[in-house]
Design a protein that fits this description.
The protein contains 2 helices and no strands. By secondary structure, the protein is an all-alpha fold. It has a domain of 30 residues. The longest helix has 30 residues. The radius of gyration is 20 Å and the shape is rod-shaped.
Length: 51
């Protein structure tokens, strides 16, 4: 419990386990990875239509 007597918030519990920078980097890598995968999928899809 915190000093104020209230239980810790969900954000406080997550930040206690994972540093904030790690969470931000993980989110950025996931977004970038999905965008890259979509781009590759789009290239293959458009390439298949041109044959």
């Amino acid at each position: 419990m915190e000093e104020s007597g209230r239980p810790p918030t969900v954000r406080a519990r997550i930040e206690a386990k994972f540093p904030r920078g790690l969470v931000i980097r993980l989110f950025a890598y996931l977004v970038a990875g999905h965008l890259f995968a979509f781009f590759v999928y789009l290239l293959f899809t458009l390439g298949a239509k041109n044959q």
